[in-house]
Amino acid sequence: MKDEELDRLFREQIENLDSAPPQLNWEPEASFQRIQAQLKQPKKGGGFIWTHYLSVAASISLLFVASLTVFKAVDHWKADFMPEQAPPSVSYSENNNPVPNMQLQVMSGTLSSSAPPLATEMQSVEYTKQTTSSDHYIPRLELVNLVQNSNPVKNQLLHTTHNTSEVATHQLSYTIFGYELFSTTWSPEKELSTTSSQEMFGHTASQMPAKKNFVVNLGLGTELIGSQFGPQANIAFSIQTENQAANAINEWSLGISSTALIHEAEGQQRSLQPATFVEASIGKKSLDKKTGDSFGVGMLIHSDNPQFSGSTFKLQYTKKLLKRINISPELILTENFKKIIPGFKLTLG
Amino acid sequence: MKIFPISGNLILNTHIHKNKNAIETRLLLDDQQLITCCRKNDSEAQKLLYEKYAPKMLRLCFRYTKNELDAEEVLISGFVKVFQHLDKFEYRGGKSFEGWVKRIMVNESLMLLRKRNNFNLVAESNAEQIEAQTYTDSNLAAEEIYALVLKLPTGYRTVFNLYAIEGYSHKEIAEQLNISINTSKSQLSKARAMLKKLLIKNGIHHER
Question: Does the keyword field hold Membrane (chain A) (predicted)?
Fold first, then answer.
């Protein structure tokens, strides 16, 4: 007998048997009573969903409050015990020869046409933006040298270096739905070093300590995945650096988002099936934070939803519509990249 | 009083188990109608569905577990899952529901077997002698063949059940039992060899 014939013989004969095995002492009624008893017990899955959400919410809140407390405490400690920072070594009082307007006019007149006009204005603007402790500092010494030399400054590098105690101010903010709850600032000691030619041409931004914002944001929204939708909550930690030259903020973000997809089957009560992703994104927004966009990837770390199986990842593009409203079309790749589900997310924060 | 809509007619399902027409009523209710009622947590419909499939499913579970108590436990947990997840089932006519219930029962059986067995360490053993049994019904050959499967060692039996009876591929079996595809093939080959010997030894001849 061939293998296939043997398989077919067993399959056909066994599939024809509809009764319980005769050798068993089975009581169908008793088994059904046990099934009914188990069905009447509270559904484990439902309990798990709420336990899951409660634990996630508790963990997020705990982390949020703990980090808030720590940074607030550090802030207070700094204020109480740290000595005040020494004033910058360069100040108005050190230069008793303010550059008269006449000199500036003369200087601009002597510059060749190819030289950038009114470099002094550019300098002062740059310093105002980049510094905190000497906002009105103008490097007069170089201006004087420039005027004295009366040479065109095009292609000329002046290697005079300023070593000042200029510092950048960093900020840590906690926001809920985009509204700032609390923020703290600090200024790490970092020596500023720029060459005067760079200052003259207004190219100092790359050399200046960039201002960084660290933002912890709690967001809320709604998400549609396939044919199911539900409320969505997320927490993200972002690092933002201001790029003054591009009038933009670069942002790197890492967070967790969880959506309670509402599943409704025919004749059944609605049930919530969570889907939790860990997400990372990179993007750019305007300085006023009203416009911007970002690209992100995510990986599913937990789900009770039958739409997802195997390894599941998401790709998303986020467009900022208003300061606090974002829309995100997304693609969810599931069943080990064999299936693609479209999605759409609207979030506040 | 429950009213089951069937093809535009209404059938009164009063005291369905005591009524003389109960059997007739059960025959009139097809899977789809029973499923619709079960989704509304109708315990009478659940019982009808259970009575229709439980004997066959118990036989399936026993074919995997080879233990009465285990088979009953698997049957119960399987039916609990069937009723709890009935909303996820999409009826496609024919034997689609039976196929879905079978799949659940097989998964439940494998879950139990995985807890108790390492399918990579199945010792080859000689098939046990089948004791002479007397069957009074017309399924003599079928019952004997069923009994032969039970004589296989757990690993051989599980792979043979999944491949030959349920129609799983070696890849699926390997994933389900956490073994390699080659181990699955090898165990199937040994199971077949053993069954052939048992068929000859017990003088079971199947005429096609």
Answer: yes
